[in-house]
Design a protein that fits this description.
By secondary structure, the chain is an all-alpha fold. Helices cover about 70% and strands about 0% of the residues. The termini are far apart.
Length: about 600
């Protein structure tokens, strides 16, 4: 009999399963059925729980298998999970950086300007941009070390900070001026003037005078050593008479003219007038030599050896000017017996020559040729010997001996080194000296510029100084033309020589401040002597600003028009310098193979 259950009725099995009733509430006859029913329900519940557990475990196993398959795909070697994460991170980083790496984005052979610009900014830094970053990083580390060591000296307002800023500004201005094909030293000099005279900048006033004097003296030593290394004995011997005439006559004539003009116009004492004359009389190899090399590379003037003639004469001209300046400087600041004063200058020159010869001969044998890195030790001996001559002569009160000692030392040492020239040792010594000049050239011209205080310069000094310069150059041009008369040159070539003999810069920067430095050291309380030293320095700066760009432009413009162009076989050895090269050239005597070739 089947009894249907109503909506509101609850079966005994339900009550039993829910625990809402007990067996006592039912008849005894139902106890067995109820137990069987409860057992069945329990089995169903257990069966369902087991099935659910099995399904969950199965799902978990399937997920684990998927993860393992993915790991095996990423990590076939079977590394740990931490290694897998590292490799995954590395892969992601590689994917992100790949578009900006040069390794995966090489520059096409025929790349456009836009592609080259894009390639320049790819990583790692390379090319000029890489060089810039390397220089910036080196500078920042160097500056941080200076701050850690010197503290206040390397922060704004300190002496070392001012020198660093001066060096950087001079380098930048030098490159900017070189872009318009003017001598870089002109930009360096202008940078020094601006840093001293621009309001609210005025970094030049933070530079200590002692530091400035020492650095300029070191730069002078480097210039003199490079000039001595660049003197070519063979060229001097070959063109000895013409070289001597061209070196001595214009220099002495301009010196004498400037001395007389400055005595009459500026009221200079005679010794100061000759001191200014020797400052103005020296030509600048730093301007003349690169300009002549540019003409020589195109074959101008090679048939008569004009570049060799001018460069060799420029070296001797500088030696004469520096020697004469040292002698007159010694006379100007000498006190005591007149006879001793007169002979002190020549005595200083003689002592400088003897010092240079003795130490130069020693440098032939020490360091010896078999020594490892002997060329480096030769450079060290040469540089330290030059510094000893420069600073030692000041200590013993014989300042005129120092410059000539440096020149003689380098010339005598290089004479033997050239003959040996073991493994290019001579060229490597010149390389080291050229590196020293790269470091000290910005400091030299920058420090010279900082010595010019426009607020204290009188207008009459500028005007009369330009007048003295103009008179001296006029006489120099005439004498230079006559000095090469009957030297086998055409009239057009003779006209080019005086124009190439105009630029002045290096020697003026090197010795233009020596008179002021000596006055500060010897006559610090004599305002008149200090004023004379300042006037000499101011006129020296004017000479550089006027003659350096004008002379370089005249050489570039008149050279192709006045000189003969000849096809040559050239072997130009620059001695690793841009200022005093050794030149050897042989004319190509065979006829031109192609008719109609330009013969300007």
């Amino acid at each position: 009999m089947i009894v249907e259950k109503g909506e509101n009725e609850v079966t005994d099995a339900d009550r039993l399963s829910n625990g809402s009733c007990s067996e006592a509430m039912l008849p005894v006859s139902c106890h067995g059925n109820i137990s069987e029913l409860a057992t069945g329900v329990s089995k169903d519940v257990t069966r369902n729980s087991v099935q659910e557990t099995q399904e969950a475990q199965k799902s978990k196993n399937e997920a684990s298998e998927i993860v393992e398959e993915e790991e095996e795909a990423v990590n076939p070697a079977g590394d740990s999970r931490s290694d897998v994460r590292c490799k995954s991170c590395k892969k992601s980083c590689h994917k992100c950086w790949k578009p900006v790496r040069t390794k995966y984005n090489p520059l096409p052979e025929k790349a456009s300007k836009l592609e080259r610009a894009k390639f320049a900014f790819l990583c790692p830094p390379h090319g000029k941009l890489g060089d810039f970053f390397a220089a910036v990083l080196t500078f920042l580390i160097f500056w941080a070390v200076l701050i850690a060591v010197t503290r206040d000296e390397a922060v704004p307002g300190g002496n070392i900070f001012a020198l660093i800023m001066l060096f950087l500004c001079c380098v930048v201005c030098g490159h900017l001026v070189a872009i318009i094909r003017l001598p870089p030293l002109l930009g360096m000099l202008i940078a020094g003037c601006l840093l001293r005279n621009v309001p609210k900048v005025n970094i030049g006033k933070d530079i200590d005078n002692t530091w400035s004097t020492v650095l300029r003296s070191v730069a002078l030593t480097v210039i003199l050593l490079r000039a001595g290394l660049g003197l070519d004995p063979k060229a001097l011997k070959k063109l000895s008479f013409v070289v001597i005439r061209l070196a001595f006559l214009p220099c002495l004539a301009e010196c004498l003219t400037a001395a007389i003009a400055s005595h009459l116009l500026l009221d200079f004492p005679w010794e100061w007038g000759f001191m200014l004359g020797f400052v103005l009389a020296a030509v600048s190899p730093a301007v003349v030599v690169p300009s002549l090399l540019s003409l020589q590379e195109r074959g101008y003037g090679m048939d008569k050896g004009i570049p060799t003639l001018v460069i060799a004469a420029a070296s001797v001209d500088d030696v004469l000017a520096i020697t004469g300046f040292g002698v007159v400087l010694a006379i100007a600041f000498s006190t005591g017996d007149l006879v001793l004063t007169i002979f002190k200058g020549p005595l200083e020159a003689l002592l400088g020559v003897v010092y240079g010869i003795v130490l130069g001969v020693i440098a032939w044998y020490i360091p010896h040729k078999e020594q490892k890195d002997f060329h480096l030790f030769r450079f060290i001996v040469l540089l330290l010997g030059g510094l000893l001559a420069t600073f030692g002569s000041q200590i013993v009160d014989l300042p005129g001996a120092g410059p000539l000692g440096c020149l003689t030392l380098a010339f005598v040492a290089a004479y033997r080194w050239r003959q040996e020239d073991v493994s290019g040792g001579m060229a490597q010594v010149s390389d080291f000296m050229s590196l020293m000049w790269m470091l000290f050239q910005p400091l030299l011209f920058g420090l010279i510029g900082t010595e010019v205080d426009i607020s204290t310069v009188q207008g009459s000094t500028i005007g009369l100084g330009v007048a003295v310069l103009t008179i001296g150059l006029f006489v120099r041009v005439i004498v230079s033309f006559l000095a090469v008369f009957k030297a086998g040159l055409t009239v057009r070539e003779m006209l080019f020589i005086p124009l190439a003999w105009l630029p002045k810069a290096t020697v003026q920067a090197a010795i233009g401040s020596l008179a002021l430095d000596t006055a500060r050291r010897e006559r610090a309380n004599d305002s008149h002597i200090l004023h004379l030293g300042t006037q000499v320095l101011t006129i020296a700066v004017l000479v550089i600003l006027i003659t350096a760009p004008v002379g370089a432009a005249l050489i570039a413009l008149t050279g192709p028009r006045l000189l003969t162009r000849t096809p040559v076989s050239r072997n130009i050895h620059l001695s690793a310098t841009c200022e005093q090269p050794e030149l050897t050239a042989t004319a190509d005597t065979h006829k031109l193979e192609e008719e109609g070739q330009d013969q300007d």
